[in-house]
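A reminder from the course coordinator: this example appears on the midterm review sheet, so study it carefully.

Given structure:
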């Protein structure tokens, strides 16, 4: 049950619930970014005094933890893997995580600064590791596979969200190697189809790298079974 605190507003009392605070914090994040997110700004948005927030959160870290959990649990509860096959499971984890982090401004900053050891998150990881071990993964390989996927996803999103060219209208849209194909013949040949495919699917490079990782995980699984 979501505990509510009571605060004064214009001489009247209003109830402030934890879920409401987290939802407003996520909206504020989209407006001001991670560095601009403060408890004072959140309190102003909710039209309450900052002290009212401490009824629900010990500090900003506690709020960040709740924001990360809410983001991830909402996304994973809304989707399901196409099958319980290990590759489908890990592919689903990667894509759901990617979509979650890219759907919020600085979403990756929230995740990397959060303490993800909450029971609800551990329950999800337990189910995933169980599913992998039942298909022949050792415990070590299952955990390493999960963290490889998660860290790859975080790295991709971090690079995307930190790229200054996305917000700089003066940024050049032509790739540097395309300006001098004689100097960079191999790169120019390699990058041309990638640029074309990214126009059709902005996630193309993410998915290409993900499949390389999944292929490697599969090779490791074959070696364990041999």
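Designed residues:
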């Amino acid at each position: 049950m979501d505990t509510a605190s009571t605060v004064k507003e214009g001489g009247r009392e209003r109830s402030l619930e934890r879920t409401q605070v987290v939802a407003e914090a996520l909206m504020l994040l989209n407006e001001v970014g991670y560095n601009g997110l403060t408890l004072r700004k959140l309190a102003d948005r909710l039209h309450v005094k900052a002290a009212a927030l401490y009824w629900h959160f010990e500090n900003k870290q506690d709020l960040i933890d709740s924001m990360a959990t809410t983001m991830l649990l909402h996304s994973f509860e809304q989707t399901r893997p196409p099958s319980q096959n290990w590759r489908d499971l890990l592919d689903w984890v990667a894509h759901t995580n990617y979509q979650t982090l890219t759907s919020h401004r600085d979403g990756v900053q929230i995740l990397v600064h959060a303490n993800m050891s909450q029971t609800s998150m551990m329950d999800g990881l337990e189910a995933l590791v169980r599913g992998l071990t039942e298909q022949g993964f050792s415990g070590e390989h299952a955990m390493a596979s999960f963290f490889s996927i998660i860290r790859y996803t975080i790295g991709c999103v971090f690079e995307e969200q930190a790229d200054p060219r996305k917000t700089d209208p003066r940024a050049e849209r032509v790739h540097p190697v395309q300006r001098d194909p004689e100097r960079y013949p191999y790169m120019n040949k390699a990058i041309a189809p990638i640029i074309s495919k990214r126009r059709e699917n902005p996630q193309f490079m993410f998915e290409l790298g993900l499949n390389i990782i999944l292929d490697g995980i599969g090779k490791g699984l074959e070696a364990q079974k041999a």
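Strands lie at 4-9, 12-17. The longest helix spans residues 139-162.
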